[in-house]
Each structure stands twice: as structure tokens, then as C-alpha cells.
Amino acid sequence: MAEPRIDVQVETPDAAPKDEKQHPNTCPACHSHYRNDELEAALWVCAQCGHHFPMRARSRIASLADDGSFAEEAAELRSDDPLDFFDLRPYGERLAEAEVNTGLGEAIVIGRAAVDGAPCELAVMDFAFMGGSMGSAVGEKFARACESAAEHGLPLISVSASGGARMQEGILALMQLPKTIVAVADLHDAGSPYVSVLAHPTTGGVLASFASLGDVLVAEPGALMSFAGPRVVQQTTREKLPDDFGRAEANLRFGHVDAIVPRPELKPYLARLLRLFANGK
Amino acid sequence: MAEPRIDVQVETPDAAPKDEKQHPNTCPACHSHYRNDELEAALWVCAQCGHHFPMRARSRIASLADDGSFAEEAAELRSDDPLDFFDLRPYGERLAEAEVNTGLGEAIVIGRAAVDGAPCELAVMDFAFMGGSMGSAVGEKFARACESAAEHGLPLISVSASGGARMQEGILALMQLPKTIVAVADLHDAGSPYVSVLAHPTTGGVLASFASLGDVLVAEPGALMSFAGPRVVQQTTREKLPDDFGRAEANLRFGHVDAIVPRPELKPYLARLLRLFANGK
Amino acid sequence: MASDAELRLRERLSKLKSINLLGGARLSGELERLQKQLDRITAEPTEDDIWRSVELARHQDRPYTLDYVERLFDDWVELHGDRGRGDDAAIISGLGRFQGRTVVVVGHQKGRDVKERAKRNFGMAYPEGYRKAMRVMKLADRFRFPLLTLVDTPGAYPGVAAEQHGQGGAIAASQATMLRLGIPIVSVVIGEGGSGGAIAIAVGDRVLMSENAIYSVISPEGCAAILWRDASEAKKAAAAFKPDAAHCLELGVIDGIVPEPPGGAHTDHDEAARLLGGAVQEALDELEALPVDELTRRRRARFRALGVFA
Amino acid sequence: MASDAELRLRERLSKLKSINLLGGARLSGELERLQKQLDRITAEPTEDDIWRSVELARHQDRPYTLDYVERLFDDWVELHGDRGRGDDAAIISGLGRFQGRTVVVVGHQKGRDVKERAKRNFGMAYPEGYRKAMRVMKLADRFRFPLLTLVDTPGAYPGVAAEQHGQGGAIAASQATMLRLGIPIVSVVIGEGGSGGAIAIAVGDRVLMSENAIYSVISPEGCAAILWRDASEAKKAAAAFKPDAAHCLELGVIDGIVPEPPGGAHTDHDEAARLLGGAVQEALDELEALPVDELTRRRRARFRALGVFA
Ligand SMILES: [Zn+2]
Ligand SMILES: [Zn+2]
């Protein structure tokens, strides 16, 4: 049988920022180049053309949470290696390297915060940590974010950026899909709203679980949000893909997201939603 | 503004059996001709080609209900003329003529019956009565069928054949859509299943209300089941319509019905469903 | 010179007085509203009156859903997409703050210029539009936000793709969805209430009509084409099936008429919005006082009772 | 020579003994089942054992969903269509009588010959398939029919149209739907349990695996292509991520293993069906004794607890 078998995209080149040879601070669209501090000040948006660079979790939190309001939760939580997984390198080594390179314990950061004065829970992914892939620890931290939100009667805002499930944890990675969905169900039963922001890229198991289950779904301009990555689709179907295959703009057109919100408008947009939801049950 | 305004099809030629010049007992598909008693014995299915002729309500009931099991309800109910509606002829005159010609008080017959020994409620429409159009009386009788089913803890089987809402009752005809839908909701809350059989044609307001809300939807082969009739669609869009536009076969392909069941197999099929549902809550 | 309309309205009034509704306050509110409507009706509308409504309901400068939304709502956020197939611009949905409370809005949207008309398909929705509506209604239900639906469509779109996507089933499902919502629902026919495409989002606890709106089972032209075999007899057809607000009120199909500025809503959008806002506010105040069970029980009873037969 | 698997299973056993579950009878049933599983495990599966599972799980003569349905169900009625866009033949759904009770079935369906394989898209569903599944699951819920899902897919279909129709959202929604069903759910991975396409219909109260089935987050070939940069290293990849039933049981991902006839299920469909029927019957008997609230509470708790972290 020759059919393709891949449907969760992890760490594939098309899920990563393209053209690795280019400096990460060079805009892939218009080739403008920026210093880190310039991009940080501009929310990692190209001043020339509006291209949205990948944004690290800490920068994202700083851009959304009111100054000093973020109180991190479950920061100590780390991945284990239940399968003693070893490919070309051991999983444990990859984890250690990711932690050193990113300064993060895992591919997601959670905690309570205030957005324009409105208290909420934040769950923010970081693509730089092993492609934002979701293993047991990421699933657990997302679930705890839901539980903290429910406990404190707060809305949840997540920002996803993920290549999908973390295959080094095998079937347990797949189980993070229903696990995070349980958490969203419990959150809803507690009466809390959930706004899911989809940043580039949100693919595979994260798109096929919590990221798609927000009461409101907001995508960033140009964000890839597809279940299967473009490369897999192309290899499988041998079709020429549409130019905007899987991009936020296509997803809006096909009815899968409520809005595309440029990064500079994201905080006021979320604040507006939080005000509106604060009037609910 | 030049946009089209028709979206409920009543008494249009394409909703009626085609080619009025042909004798109604001549098969429009293969031109075989039959006597009434031959067709009645064959459930109004062409022995040569399998074409399903329109079936009158009494024949339909005889074909589904066990002998002597049908106990009609609300037989005395008649349409009123709340708008004193007068087009080329008064509505009252059309009603009287329909009753004389069909021997029916309205375009639907309801009552309790047994199908292969399984008790149920039947609601069967008759296209010969003003194109099976739904006015207040048809809506009321369908609703009473639901209520009788709920009261007796029985499943409901409806067989629809209708050009849509009866425009001679104006806005009240449109209100039969939510009215019959209320009845189905109450029926479901009472725990009764509802199987909707769609015969040729089921269009307009009947398709846009109860006929689409069965737990199981069964179409007869070749039955037209579209919200707008082919003529209106063609006039509006100026497109060439697909050959099987709106037909049961297209609806199965597009996911709108559970099965297409030829008339000779309909009674055993429904009996099987009734046995299965009898095991539910 | 009491008209039929007046007599039937008086009959409804006297019936209402004898019904033991939930609360005295609610009941008297209901009576008061009917009384007010009664005062507005002085005589049976003529064929010309009815046709004027048809023309005003379709007037190209008439305020559309978004014209009302921008005047009545703060913090408006539009929600897009049916989460399956597309985002139908003929129906808009979103949430905003109305008089201090968060309200979810679902409404047909026509376009004002040629380009927008094409984009909005003249306010004629595909099944995608109704599926978006249902999705957003369920969101409202989850958070107990009241729902306001604004009806303004010539009808659901009659096209090949619309049928292939399940137009009839979507319209039925949308009504069934509305019946199950545990939230107050106010529906207002603000322009054209065209047939199945209209009722799909008009299953409200209170159904209102703007003074010059029409609400009908078929368009006058469509009715004339079928019954008179001549679409130009539309005026005669309209007079026969009586789609105007006064007749809809008389038949018990709507609960009240929202006044328009003199000359029609198109003459003054601000004033039209003020008048609509007042009516919606009044209706919501009444409905929010009811327990959820009672609300949905009455909603079902309201629609179950519609129709006249012998 | 106690293997890791055995040790972990023993650990789960001893934990279970100390938990105060609802009923003593249920508890002892659970223990008994685990004990049986333990007896089956004599040693850690080798790389060859695991690869044999991969091959048997994909064997072209392996019984598929309909092979089981025709052997285990009376009065079978297949239900078609998602009520919106299409009828995806890669997923079948329907109701039938199983051991006297009406049960709703949702399962992937592969094709046996070239033509049927094309029709069924090799068991790789589009979003339409998952939407059909959800619709039928809700039907089951409405009538309190237990749900049996049979999982056998290489994965959800990775195609342009599938993405445009919302593949990710449909898979998420299907899982969310299953979590809310107030009915017993038994899910059995009967062949390939491929990734998101599998878990979409595998959120059961009891999740079982056929002895030679595999259940994995990615195909061995896909994993090898990404991590080893060489798809031909599939055997090595499979040994690394351990998709076989014994490992899934050890990790607590499944609750039990359904034995197959000697040589594999493809050698004797009747016997394979008899063994599957027995396991399903046992699971349903246990689940039907639980109150609905307790059922859904445990279902959530079961999936909430999955994962290993530090
Ligand atoms: Zn740029
Ligand atoms: Zn013939």
C-alpha cells in the first residue's frame, strides 16, 4: 500500500520559518533587516511590509499582559522521556538543548495576567522550543491553564505556535489532543470563555485539539494553520497547492476563523472581547 | 433591484409530475402504460424500469400499515381562509375542488398504525391536494401527529410530498415552518424517534421544516428534494442545471439523506428501524 | 369605523387579559404593548398602502443590519465563518454591548453599492450563512447572552450550490436551534422578511416588524407569476397576501410594530436606530425577567399556536 | 525475568486495588481484566515483534469495520451523510442490534479491492467523515444507544480540499463531541490507529486494541523521514515510538487487548469477530451499570490523566 501515512507535522521545514539560510531578522517578504531591539519594539512586525516575524513566548506575554501583571504558573514542569526515545540523538538531549537555547522549560508558558485591566489566564506557546511541539508537559501545562482559569473564574487566552504533536513521546503525544480537549470542556462547564489566537504556524495536533476550540478564533496575518503541512499535502496529492494554502487568509475565507488581527491591534481586540465576555453568565 | 424573490415553490410545473399531456399512468421514463389496479398492486412502481409514480396518501398508508391497523386522527380538520384570498379564483373554491377531487380533507393524513407489528404514528402527505402545499391545517395536523406520538410513546414516520408552503394563506403558511419544528422538538423531548421519508417532490417550506428534521431521512429513488425548484434556480442563476439537480441521488451524494430506499423495500426498512429504536430510551 | 384589524386586535387583548401568565408585571407590559399597537391602527391598509410598504421595505437607502449595529452597539466584534465551509457575507453575526449588556446579533446584510451587493449576494444567504448563524447562536447560549436577530432578505439564495450544500436542511436546523436556546431572543423584521430565508433566523420570543417592513411566504412577484401567471400583477398579489406589518400583527404573527421616522426609515437612520433600540430594549427588559424554562416554554407555545383552520 | 511492561502493569494493578471505585463488582471486573492482560505479557516486544504488528495491522486481508459489523450485528442500518457537504465513505456509521441491545457504530472503513480502496480513500477521512461521525454520535446520545467506534486508518486525509473543509477543526470537534456524550462508548483500534485521524473517534470510556493493531502519533515511515531523514528506517522508528498494543497498554493509553486468532485476525474473520464481540460485550456490560454523570466524569478523568512528565 502506497498511501501516505503522515498527518501530524512535527519539525518539518515548512512549519519552520522559511529559508533557514537567511538571517532570522531579515524580512522574508521585503528583505528589510532589523536589529533585535527594533523588532521587539515593533512587536516583531516588519515596519516596511507588515510581515509578522515569529514572536517568542516572553515577548508575546509582554505585548499582551499589562506591565508587571503576569504571574507564571507551573514553571517548574518539565518533559519526561517515557519511551527512552532515541533517534539520531536522544530525546533527553534535544530537550536539554532546547531549554538552554530558549531559556524556557517547555514550549508553552502559562500564568495569570491582566489585559487592559481585565484579569485573565494566558497560555502562550513558543515555536523556538522544539518547533512548539506538544508532548505530555505541554498538554499538562495547557490543561493546568484551563484549570487555573476555571478556578479563578477567568477567561483563557491561548496563543498557539506549533508544528504539532511531539513524536518523541509516541502515542502519549497523541493523547495530549483529548487531554487538552477535556480541559477546554471543563473550562466551558465552569462558564469561562476561551479565546484562541493562532500564530504562525499552528498545525497538526495543536490545530486538531485546543487551538480550534476557542469560543472565538483569531489568526495572525499570514499564519499557516493547516492540519497537514504543505509539504506532506504536496507529496501526497501531487497537486499544485494554492498560493495561500493553509494560511490565515484562506482559513478566514473558508469559515474557520472569526478574524485576522494584525499584531499591533491584538491587545485592544482581546481587551474588547474580555469586556464583552465579562457581561456573560 | 433585479434579484429573484421566489424561494418557496408552490404548484410550479417542475414540482408537479412532468409532462401533463401524458396520461398519469404512462411511465415518463420508459412509456409503459398501466391500469390503476396494476400500479396499485405494484406500489405505483413501473414494472419495466422501476420509475416511482406519485403515490396517493391512502395507497401509501395501505402499503405501510398492517392491515386494519390504521386509525385516522384529526380527519375532520379543514383549512380556513384567514386572508379571504382571491387570485384568479377564491382560495375557498380551490379547497373545495381539491376535497372533491381527492376525497381528502387536506394534503396530509395522520393517524396511529402498526408497521410489521410495531406501533407508530403516521403522517402522510398527498401531492394531489393542492400540490401538497402546507397551510395552517397541514401544519396543525402534522403537529398533532407529533403530539399523538409523544402522548402514546410512539415513533413518528412521516412521508412528505409537497411543493412547499401554501401561499394562499400568506404569512401564516410561512409560520407553519416553525410550528411543525416546535412539534418535532417536543416529540424529541418526549423521547420518540422520528423517521422522515421524502417522496417526490419535497420542496420549499416542507423541506425547510419538519421533513429535514427526522432522526433518519429516507428518500425515494428519483425524488426531487430541493428548497428552490429547478425552474426558479434556472431563472435566477441562468446556469445549466446538473441532470440530477435536487434529486434524491444527488442529495445522498451531498450528505443530506441517510438512504434511498425503493418503495417495495420501504416497509421492511422502516420496520427494521422501528425495532432498533424500540431498544432506546 | 372599527376595522377588522382593530376588532381582531381587541379580541387578542381581551383573551390576553383572561390568561393567567407568569407575572402580573409581565402581563400588564404585554397588554400595554398591544394597546399601543391598537392605537396605531386606525383603518385597514389599502392596496396602495401595502405596496408602499413593499417599496419602502426594499428602498436602497433603508438602514441595513450594520447601520443599526453601528448606532446601537459599543465594543462591536464581528464573528466570521461557519467553521466548515465558508463565511457568508449575506449574514453578519457578532457581539457587542447594548445598553450595558452584551448581546449577540445575527442579521441579514444587503449591500448598498454594486460591489457590496454582489459581495453580500443582495442579502440572500447560502446554507453557510445559516450555519454561521447557528454557530454564533450556540455561542450566545453558552454564555447566556441575549440574541437579537435582524431580518432583511428577499429570501434564501436559490442556486445550484446552495441546494447542494443543503439549503432546506439548514433553514430547518436554524429554526430548530433557535427553539432550544436558553436565552431571550428578539427578532425584528427591519426590511424584507422573505420566506424561508427570513424565518430561519426569526424564531424569537418577541418578533417585531418595522413599520414599513414586509414579511411574506413568497415575494409579490413570485406569487403573481404563479397564481396570476403574470409577474407584473405583483401589486395585486401583495394586496391579496398582505405582507405589511399591520396585517402581520393582526394575524398574531408578530408582537409589535417598531415605528419609523416620518417618510420611512431611509430618511433618518439615526432616528430609525433610536426607535429600534427603544423597542429592543423594552422587549429585552421584559424577557430577561423570565426564568429560562418559562422562556423556552413560551417560545414554543407561541409558534405552536400560529395558524387559522376550521 | 519481569519486563518493564510487566512491572508497570503490576503497578497499575496495585494502584487500582487501592482506589475506591463506584462498585465492588465493577472494580473486581477491572482488576480481573488487567490480570488477564498481565498474563499475556511475558516479555518486552522486540523490534521484530513490533514490526510484525505494523505489517499485520496493515494486512490487506485483515477484517475491516464492515467485516465485524456483518458478523456481530443484526438489523444493521447504515446511516449516510454529514447533512452539509457529503457522504465520506472512509467512515461508516449506522445502528444495529448487538447482543439484544441497539448500538450505534462509527468506524473507519478501508477498501479491499482497488476500486473500493479508491472509493474509501484507503480509510483516510475528510472532515465530512468526522462531521458524519459527530452527527450520528449525537443521534446515539439522543436515544441513549451505546456507541462503538472502530478505528482503522492510516490517518486523516492530507489534501487541499480536506484542509479547506477544516480538517483540524473537525478532528478537534469530534473529540469534544465524544467527551459530552451521555452514553457508554467503547473504542477499539482494530488495525491502524493513525494519529489525529484515529483519536478523532477514539475518545471512549474503554479503549481497546486488537492484539496486532498499532496506535501511533505518526506513521513509522513519516517518523523515519523526519527524524532519521530516511523513510526506509521505518522499522527502527516503529521500535523507537512503540505503537504496538502491549506498549499502549503499558502506557495506560488503552484499557485492554483484544486477542486475535493465532496468526492474526486475517486468518479467520469469524473467530476475530467472535473475540472482538466478547470484549465489546464485556466492556458494555460494565459501562451500562454506571450512571451517566459518573460515566462522563470518568471519561474526562481518564483522558485528563494521560501523559508522563517531570
Ligand atoms: Zn517586510
Ligand atoms: Zn417505466
Q: What can you see in these coordinates?
A:
The complex is a heterotetramer, with 2 copies of chain A (281 residues) and 2 copies of chain C (310 residues). In chain A, strand 2 and strand 3 (118-125) form a beta hairpin. With 281 residues, chain A is an alpha/beta fold. Chain A has one domain (54-279): 2-enoyl-CoA Hydratase, Chain A, domain 1 (Alpha-Beta Complex). Helix content of chain A is 34%, strand content 15%. The model of chain A is unreliable at 1-18 (pLDDT under 50). Chain A has helices at residues 36-41, 57-64, 91-102, 136-152, 170-174, 176-189, 204-207, 230-237, 248-253, 263-277, and strands at 71-73, 108-115, 118-125, 156-162, 194-202, 216-219, 259-260. In chain A, helix 4 packs parallel to helix 6. Chain A contains 10 helices and 7 strands. In chain A, strands 1-2-3-4-5-6-7 form a 7-stranded mixed beta sheet, sandwiched between helices. By secondary structure, chain C is α/β, with parallel strands linked by helices. Chain C folds into 2 domains: 1-43; 47-305, 2-enoyl-CoA Hydratase, Chain A, domain 1 (Alpha-Beta Complex), CATH 3.90.226. In chain C, 49% of the residues lie in helices and 16% in strands. Chain C has 14 helices and 8 strands. In chain C, strands 1, 2, 3, 4, 5, 6, 7 and 8 form an 8-stranded mixed beta sheet that branches. Chain C starts with a helix and ends in a 6-residue tail after the last helix. The relative contact order of chain C is 0.14. The chains are: A alpha/beta (281), C alpha/beta (310). At the A-D interface, helix 4, helix 5, helix 6, helix 7 and helix 8 of A face helix 7, helix 8, helix 9, helix 10 and helix 11 of D. The complex binds zinc ion (ZN) (2 copies). One zinc ion is lined by residues 27, 29-30, 32, 46, 48-49, 51 of chain B.
